Amino acid sequence: MAISWSSNSDIENFLSNVEFLKKHLRTDTYNQSTDLICFSHVPKTAGSSLENILFKNHQAKDVLHINAPDLIRHPAALSMKKRPPKLVCGHHPMHGILYQLLPASPIFHVTMLRHPVDRVLSYYNYVLGKTDHPMHAHAKGQSLSEFLHALPSPELANGQSKRFSGYLHQGQANDDTLYDTAVATLVHCFSLVLTTELFDQSLLLLQFHLGLKDLHYTRSNVSTPFIKRGDLAKDEVALIEAMNQADLRLCDWAQKRCLAQFDQFVGTHALQAFQHRNAQWQSWFQ
What we know:
By secondary structure, the chain is of the alpha/beta class. It has helices at residues 2-7, 10-24, 47-56, 68-73, 116-129, 136-139, 144-150, 159-163, 175-189, 199-210, 234-243, 245-265, 268-283; strands at 36-40, 63-65, 87-90, 107-113, 192-195. The chain has a 5-stranded parallel sheet, with helices on both faces.
């Protein structure tokens, strides 16, 4: 499968992966004994915090964390353990090799989206503060607007919609195509689509579906806020929004859907109780 993946175009791999996930997606009750949990981590969406919560609800021997570039170099990683992992996490676009290496068994597939203004700003702050990042030279000494105009990464312009439509690294599509394809992918290929803005509600939804026992958290991998959201000029916000029209629509759709599912399965009383417990838990580590 890895050989065919490398010779195919991104769109061909995307379409193949969509068909695979449609066949094996767990859309009803998660079965701990048979199902794989797969978290597709979109960069700068608080995914590291979510990964840590998933990790501590599993034994280390049952977890595999690997990003797409490493999996391309080491495709045997999924089969190196005596038993297949029960949780796989990492940065994997929908055209990625991961979905052509997973076993043909039920998959509970999860991802998390974030409002593009906050996500792009977090991305810029992260690159600016990480001196060994390949794009640090692009960010250092440049304003946010200059950084965006240079476009050193496809993640900065509709990166979420491109990730879920097969266009992150190859090809072009207009905003409507990106949005429509991404929504269809998220509906048919994901068990849960969560959002950073509804982080606590997202955790309780995960608990409802997966039976997680420990949801307590503090934020992980938080970018140093060289620039805060409130510091952005109106033209900077407008530039990010202009470059992320599909992502704006996608995140609005995801947030409304996530909130509706939360209201259906969990409710505000459980949210208030969890936030009170988590605040107490966080105070022990301050």
